[in-house]
């Protein structure tokens, strides 16, 4: 797989290059900022792009804005965004955007090389992979949505695992259920939320985008993230 990296930290950037190449992938470009990102994507035609959320010059949202721009210029390009901490607003912007496969992981996940590389490969193959912490905050901050309140505790657990990119078989194993039971839970979840259960990975994006945009967040609750 051909991968483009945009990460300002030299140590993390070089570490990503090393572990991805050691895993048999080709890093076609490794950038320190977004200045030449569009040209690099056009010239190197990567199969997946990895971006940090905070990049020079302001170290605020350059990576997110670059990712959203790539969603417009290269809508089918799989994207993996890395973040130091959970920042709900940035995750929500990406989830709500239309486009190809998406990953949003905390940088701590890179330490587990095997799991990280598996996540990269699943995203490139079309999966949606969201960090469990991101999923937890999105679901918790929107728990006043009446539609979410229709879900049972088990259905919430299944939805969170789906958003992490887990397959039905994996969920069944983790929850000690039959795969048929998992499928019934999924059907029930999307009936209650008003989404088609046959939409593949987009059903996860649609559900989370719906939750985020429903406007039921408590204005007196502060963001537990804080930047990833």
| Gyration radius, rounded | 17 Å
Q: How many H/I helices?
A: 11
Quick one: how many beta strands? 6
Major sheet: arrangement of strands: 2-1-3-4-5-6
Keywords: DNA-binding, Phosphoprotein, Transcription, Transcription regulation
InterPro entries: CheY-like_superfamily, NreC/VraR/RcsB-like_REC, Sig_transdc_resp-reg_receiver, Tscrpt_reg_LuxR_C, WalR-like
Modified residues (4-aspartylphosphate): 52
GO biological process, one term: regulation of DNA-templated transcription
Structural commentary:
Pfam families: GerE, Response_reg. Keywords: DNA-binding, Phosphoprotein, Transcription, Transcription regulation. It comes from Microbacterium esteraromaticum. Residues 144-213 form the HTH luxR-type domain. The modification 4-aspartylphosphate is found at residue 52. The protein has 228 residues and is α/β, with parallel strands linked by helices. It has two domains: 2-130, 3-Layer(aba) Sandwich (Rossmann fold), CATH 3.40.50.2300; 136-212, Response regulator (Rossmann fold, 3-Layer(aba) Sandwich), CATH 3.40.50. Helix content is 50%, strand content 12%. The protein contains eleven helices and six strands. Strands 2-1-3-4-5-6 form a six-stranded parallel β-sheet, with helices on both faces. Strand 3 (48-52), helix 3 and strand 4 (79-83) form a beta-alpha-beta unit. Helix 6 (132-141) packs across helix 8, helix 8 (153-163) packs across helix 10 and helix 9 crosses helix 10 (179-193). The longest helix has 15 residues, at 179-193. The chain is globular. Residues 213-228 have low confidence and may be disordered.
